[in-house]
Design a protein that fits this description.
With about 475 residues, the chain is mainly α. Helix content is about 75%, strand content about 0%. Helix 14 (about 285-295) packs antiparallel against helix 23 (about 440-455).
């Protein structure tokens, strides 16, 4: 039986093949966070430099993802996925071999570009190979993979950094990439392609806007919000407005068909996933720095503080996935955001020197319960009402939105950590001493904890925004919902 026929009769093997590569590229969004203090010390870098190691990956991931969704429709989703997987795997080798933070940032840009080629293909392929009755369950698996990857990344990063060195958080991608390539080549079908007129002006406007906004936000505090930084941010906003207007008046084939947003559930899902992207990219940095600098935890010990979150997300993934075909998304996601916000506020309240491990584990477990009710249902609800011909465009927009949230979240958390450290410990943020080793002075440790605690208001605010947004969901229109 050939691949297309096999996928038509049983598409699940193709899904699992795609999930391996998708999981790997999402793990790399957060795997660096726990290794931040070690990289600061080994490469003689600042906190802001190392945040750019993640931001560069996210930015290179986010900017092209709109066009790569369309490229998959034109040249074949399977083949663009395999090309992106090859780029990603080779760039991972480059990351592990670097000896300077500048070279590491450059390698991460290439790695992010490979990820941008892969992600929209996974969502588009799933949408096309699964019948409507099973699409919700399949997208739930895809969405749960994103949620689990966000918390597994730091844990895996801690184990590898402690056991083998920070370089191995990148080297580990090589065997996984090879396995993912072989499985995708054998199990993923080569689907029919469609002709497209590519909106290169839209690509240029959206990419330029994203770069100017993110670079300006992240470097603003370091540069004392100089005039040219403000001009970059203003320019980014202006270009984004120009991009939206161009999409509205482009009579050929816009990069983002604005008709997508006529579907309320697609629009709400994009707000929700942008919030989650921001949370996933931002909350790990303050927490991991607190754990290692204040508590004196090793990278592995620090990462294991997130284990309850990962366990609950994995344990609940299957039962929550089944709920997405039966319950109103407002109920499922409203519960998820409310529980996660409550757990996060509890974590912030207790984040002080000398607290017991269980005082961190309990709120992390609560956050994990809430997150399980967010990641998969959001993905399952986003494209459910869209026509099949918009699968590629919808996947591209959804993934771009998540990455926009990740980029802005990483940039904003760098600003907050820098400003809070500068307030409580002048000079520490610029030179990286505060994050490189345990702080022996109890008074300094208390001030550092306050800085990290206040930085966590960003992800807390994003949970609150997401909670408000999901109240606007409407009942899905697909046949058989609720049975």
């Amino acid at each position: 039986m050939n691949a297309p026929a096999a996928a038509e009769s049983n598409p699940w093997p193709a899904l699992w093949a795609l999930v391996i590569g998708f999981f790997m590229i999402l793990v790399d969004l957060t795997i660096v966070t726990v290794a931040t203090p070690t990289i600061i010390e080994d490469l003689d870098a600042s906190v802001n430099d190392v945040v750019w190691v993640t931001s560069a990956y996210m930015l290179a991931y986010a900017v092209p993802v709109l066009i790569t969704g369309r490229l998959g429709d034109r040249f074949g989703s399977k083949y663009l996925y395999l090309a992106g997987l090859t780029v990603f795997t080779l760039a991972s080798l480059w990351c592990g071999l670097t000896t300077t933070v500048d070279a590491l940032i450059l390698a991460r840009v290439v790695q992010g570009f490979g990820a941008s080629m892969m992600t929209p293909q996974t969502m588009a392929i799933i949408t096309r190979i699964f019948p409507p009755a099973k699409r919700g369950s399949a997208m739930a698996v895809w969405g749960a993979t994103a949620g689990v990857a966000m918390v597994v990344g730091p844990i895996l990063g801690g184990v590898l950094t402690d056991g083998l060195g920070w370089e191995w958080i990148f080297f580990v991608n090589i065997p996984v990439g090879v396995v993912a390539f072989v499985m995708a080549w054998r199990l993923v079908p080569a689907l029919p392609t469609h002709a497209h007129k590519f909106d290169w002006l839209g690509v240029a406007l959206s990419g330029s806007a994203m770069f100017l906004l993110c670079f300006g936000i992240q470097e603003g505090h370091q540069m004392d919000w100089a005039g040219w930084i403000i001009a970059m941010i203003a320019g980014g906003i202006a270009l984004f407005v120009a991009f939206v207007l161009w999409q509205r008046f482009n009579r050929a084939e816009p990069l983002v068909p604005l008709s997508l947003f006529k579907d309320r559930n697609f629009s709400v899902s994009n707000v929700a996933i942008m919030c989650m992207g921001s949370i996933g990219a931002s909350f790990g940095f303050p927490l991991m720095l607190y754990a290692q600098a204040v508590r004196g935890n090793s990278p592995t010990q620090a990462a294991l503080l997130m284990l309850p979150m990962a366990v609950m997300s994995i344990f609940l993934a299957q039962p929550v996935g089944k709920l997405t075909d039966r319950l109103h998304p407002r109920q499922v996601l409203g519960f998820g955001f409310a529980v996660s916000l409550a757990g996060f506020l509890l974590l912030m309240w207790r984040l002080e020197p000398g607290i017991a491990v269980w005082e961190i584990a309990v709120p992390m477990g609560v956050i994990g319960v809430g997150n399980a009710f967010i990641w998969a249902p959001t993905a399952a609800t986003a494209n459910r009402n869209l026509p099949i011909q918009l699968a590629g465009a919808g996947a591209g927009v959804y993934n771009a939105t998540r990455q926009v949230g990740s980029v802005l979240g990483a940039a904003a958390i760098a600003v907050l950590m820098d400003s809070r450290l500068a307030h409580y410990l002048p000079g520490a943020a610029a030179h990286g001493e505060a994050g490189a080793a345990r702080i022996p002075d109890p008074h300094v440790a208390d001030l550092f904890s306050r800085a990290m605690q206040q930085s966590l208001w960003l992800p807390a605010a994003m949970y609150a925004v997401g909670l408000v947004a999901v109240m606007f969901y409407e009942k899905p229109r697909h046949e058989g919902f609720g049975h």
